[in-house]
């Protein structure tokens, strides 16, 4: 029983990491006022490329770099559409997302069913010896730690730096920001690029670390979960992280219960993480004032620089 | 610390000009926004730019502030020909601007907002903000989140932001449109103080009395051209208005209403709980509009007027048990929707002309159909096009709506013309009770005068009119009695002819005792 619980909680961090990475990227994009719905596609494409590169080079690091770059590449296509041609953000995001999914399937066909070695767990010296907690929190792979650090970094950037303040106000009102001498298009481009890189890392983690075995439909909706986490987490990095870890824990809970032979229909267990995450995050976001303060007011609106 | 750099004015001795515009022209396609405009401003001068909406005031200011560039002409800054290529350049030169629609971000603090244009550490900046707000009598709290501030407070933030950049020229775009009379007085004190320190002020407005009270000189624009450059202190409001409009504007003179005492619209004890946490809740609002009178509701916007108009129009309904809180002609209607209330004889002219008063993407004929369908325009579920078109044509003719025919989209009309159309449409319905919100907001003087005349004509026919307005002058011009809304509460009504703008101004900041005293006086 205890072992099962430790398994669930320890695994939750790894399961949640791709969600968290992608959601942090999307959070920064949305804070700048851009809604990028191609997260699923960016994750899928970079998962395929990262898998391929890691297979060839044997290096997870090189795989992650390739994944990040391919996410950035797809994000650039999206950025050109919405910032350059003022395309509708929802339509452009869906189109680029489908492109990413298609490319992923195409590239991945040749290594269907192949496997990779995983990534070793790092037991933090000292901390990992703490009973129970040590095995849950402090015996994880490096990316899990990095994702936690990234959460703190994104929060620090958004709320403690001038650049973060600039990004947030561009998401509130790009016209006013421009009138004050800021450059909304440039800032939004950088934000979209960051979102692409983060989605790329998320895809790379999913295909080379979390389940290092290639199969089509590798990402399986995780990009969409990431987008939802941003909204339900009211655009706050900390709450988004809570949502991601909760989702991870409840997904694994189902597996653990099944392994223990508790007779709950699999369908219910499969939908439980979605339901529970939504319920918890809706409760968090019930405070309308908080939502209004954190939601980017210009989200999804094209910005045309005044001539 | 805030002295303008360069020359300071010496009384009686003409000093060198600070900003001079020479033959400035700007056109957007075939539309000429500014045509060979010349203006000369000296340090310390308060210079009014006066004109109707669309006269080219805003375009002119945008060119001075570097938002857009002129097609022809030269701008001289301190005697030198200067190209002002961007707002940043304008600020670097020493030009500050307070916009009519504020350029503040709502979700961050005052100090953070100011940090975008005034460099420096936030904590040090906060101290400078406090110092400046004390020096100029502009109460501003640097750590406050902007969304919590009233419009008056936001304007002070904008002013402080400009002043911290130590400008030698300050541009103010319709600064008093959102202020109470008392706040206007305070603003003027500050502006005169700035002027004494040598800061020149460009004051854009269409309020003639204010310009006469404040400004040293005035340039009047009409259709993009300068039609007069005068000393406003030596002019009358009437002569200024004539230069602005190009013809005489009759005041809506009218006899006092003689209501027969019967109440047509009654609100008793209406309290609400708004869904939006920042909206103002109505608190036990009482009011009565009698046959053949105009009851004016004054107040700074955001004190519950929106909620009141929504509950009166039927866009927002009450539970059946509370339906009696709103009565039209003696019938409880609180639970009824807009269409049913209209059948009872109510007509409603909302604040937003495009979107609530008219559908922007529809033609005028289709917009006619929206509320006037019961004038025989629909038969067995089918539209009778002839009847509809005839009504639309008649409305356009009678109200002198300037448009590209009855097939023109509502969004293609100017605000004034669309409002005339909407008022005309509602008049055709021969309502018994009319609720009108901000009927002349943002429309030109000519159209505004016509709308007011029509409202008085309706009143004289016995229609009961509730007029919600932020324009005190308008309320004093046409309403018979006035009440004031403040933070969701409604004052006792007072007779317009027995009160003054000063007393209404006190009520607008919540000092309702002023009205109670008057009600008591009236009762004696």
Identify the overall geometry of chain B. Answer: globular
Helix-strand makeup class of chain A: mainly alpha
List unreliable stretches of 5+ residues of chain B.
1-13
Which percent bin holds the helix content of chain A?
Answer: over 70%
Describe the protein in words:
The complex is a heterodimer of chains A (307) and B (524). Helices cover 72% and strands 1% of the residues of chain A. With 307 residues, chain A is mostly helical. A two-stranded antiparallel sheet of chain A has the order 1-2. In chain A, helix 3 runs antiparallel to helix 4 (89-108), helix 10 (222-232) crosses helix 11 and helix 11 runs antiparallel to helix 12. Chain A is globular and about 60 Å long. In chain A, 50% of the residues are buried. The model of chain A has no long low-confidence stretch (mean pLDDT 90). With 524 residues, chain B is an alpha/beta fold. Helix content of chain B is 33%, strand content 22%. Chain B contains 17 helices and 23 strands. In chain B, strands 13, 16, 19, 20, 21, 22 and 23 form a 7-stranded mixed β-sheet that branches. In chain B, strands 6-7-8-3-9-10 form a 6-stranded mixed β-sheet, with helices on both faces. Mean pLDDT of chain B is 86; it is low at 1-13.
């Amino acid at each position: 029983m205890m072992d099962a619980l430790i398994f669930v909680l320890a695994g939750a961090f790894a399961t949640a990491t791709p969600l968290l990475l992608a959601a942090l990227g999307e959070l920064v994009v949305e804070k700048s006022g851009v809604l990028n719905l191609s997260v699923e596609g960016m994750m899928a494409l970079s998962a395929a490329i990262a898998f391929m590169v890691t297979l060839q080079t044997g290096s997870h690091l090189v795989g992650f770099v390739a994944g990040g770059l391919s996410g950035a590449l797809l994000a650039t296509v999206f950025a050109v559409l919405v910032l350059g041609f003022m395309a509708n953000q929802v339509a452009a995001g869906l189109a680029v997302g489908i492109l990413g999914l298609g490319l992923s399937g195409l590239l991945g066909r040749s290594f269907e069913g192949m496997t990779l070695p995983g990534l070793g767990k790092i037991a933090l010296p000292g901390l990992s010896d703490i009973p129970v907690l040590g095995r849950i929190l402090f015996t994880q792979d490096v990316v899990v730690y990095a994702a936690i650090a990234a959460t703190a970094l994104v929060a620090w950037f958004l709320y403690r730096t001038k650049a973060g303040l600039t990004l947030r106000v561009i998401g509130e009102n790009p016209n006013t920001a421009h009138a004050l001498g800021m450059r909304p298009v440039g800032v939004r481009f950088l934000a979209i690029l960051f979102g692409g890189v983060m989605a790329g890392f998320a895809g790379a983690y999913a295909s080379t670390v979390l389940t290092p075995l290639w199969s089509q439909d590798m990402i399986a909706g995780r990009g969409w979960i990431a987008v939802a986490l941003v909204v339900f987490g009211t655009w706050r990095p900390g709450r988004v992280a809570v949502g991601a870890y909760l989702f991870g824990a409840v997904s694994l809970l189902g597996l653990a219960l099944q392994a223990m032979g508790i007779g709950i229909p699999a369908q219910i267990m499969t939908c439980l993480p979605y339901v529970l995450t939504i319920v918890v995050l809706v409760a968090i976001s019930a405070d309308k004032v908080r939502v209004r303060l954190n939601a980017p007011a210009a989200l999804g609106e094209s910005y045309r620089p005044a001539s | 610390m805030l002295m303008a750099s360069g020359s300071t004015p010496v009384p009686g001795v003409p000093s060198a000009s600070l900003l001079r515009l020479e033959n400035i022209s700007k056109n957007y396609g075939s539309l000429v926004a500014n045509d060979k405009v010349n203006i000369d401003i000296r340090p310390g001068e308060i210079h009014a730019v006066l004109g109707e909406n669309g006269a080219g005031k805003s375009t002119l200011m945008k060119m001075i502030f570097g938002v857009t560039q002129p097609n022809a002409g030269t701008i001289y800054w301190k005697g030198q020909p200067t190209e002002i290529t961007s707002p940043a350049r304008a600020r670097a030169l020493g030009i500050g601007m307070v916009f009519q629609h504020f350029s503040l971000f709502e979700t961050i603090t005052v100090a953070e907002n100011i940090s975008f244009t005034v460099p420096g550490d936030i904590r040090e900046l906060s101290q400078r903000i406090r110092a400046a707000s004390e020096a100029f009598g502009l109460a501003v709290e640097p750590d406050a989140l902007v969304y919590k501030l009233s419009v008056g407070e936001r304007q002070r933030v904008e002013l402080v932001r400009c002043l911290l950049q130590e400008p030698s020229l300050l541009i103010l775009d319709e600064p008093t449109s959102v202020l109470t009379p008392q706040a206007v007085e305070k603003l003027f004190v500050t502006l005169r103080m700035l002027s004494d320190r040598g800061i020149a002020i460009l004051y854009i407005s269409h309020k003639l009395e204010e310009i006469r009270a404040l400004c040293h000189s005035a340039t009047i624009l009409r259709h993009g051209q300068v039609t007069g450059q005068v000393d406003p202190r030596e002019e009358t409001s009437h002569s200024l208005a004539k230069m602005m409009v190009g013809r005489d504007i009759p005041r809506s003179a009218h006899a006092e209403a003689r209501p027969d005492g019967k109440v047509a619209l009654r609100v008793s004890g209406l309290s609400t709980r708004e869904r939006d946490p920042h909206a103002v809740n109505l608190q036990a609002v009482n009011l009565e509009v009698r046959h053949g009178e105009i009851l004016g509701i004054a107040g700074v916007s955001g004190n519950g007027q929106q909620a009141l108009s929504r509950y009166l129009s039927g866009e927002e309904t009450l539970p059946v048990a509370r339906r009696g809180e709103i009565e039209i002609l003696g019938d409880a209607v609180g639970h009824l929707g807009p269409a049913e209330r209209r059948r009872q004889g109510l007509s409603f002219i909302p604040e937003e002309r495009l979107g609530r008063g008219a559908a922007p993407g529809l033609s005028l004929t289709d917009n006619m159909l929206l509320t006037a369908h019961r004038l025989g325009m629909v038969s067995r579920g089918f539209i009778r096009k002839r009847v509809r078109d005839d009504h639309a044509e008649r409305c356009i003719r009678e109200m002198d709506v300037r448009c590209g025919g009855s097939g023109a989209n509502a969004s293609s009309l100017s605000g004034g013309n669309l409002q005339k159309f909407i008022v005309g449409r509602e008049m055709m319905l021969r309502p018994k009770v009319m609720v009108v919100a901000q009927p002349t907001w943002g429309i030109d003087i000519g159209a505004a005068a016509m709308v007011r005349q029509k409202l008085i004509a309706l009143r004289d026919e016995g229609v009961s009119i509730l007029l919600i307005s932020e324009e005190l002058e308008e309320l004093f011009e046409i309403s018979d009695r006035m009440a004031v809304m403040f933070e969701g509460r409604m004052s006792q009504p007072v007779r317009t002819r027995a009160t003054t703008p000063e007393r209404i101004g006190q009520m607008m900041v919540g000092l309702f005792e002023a009205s109670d005293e008057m009600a008591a006086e009236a009762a004696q």
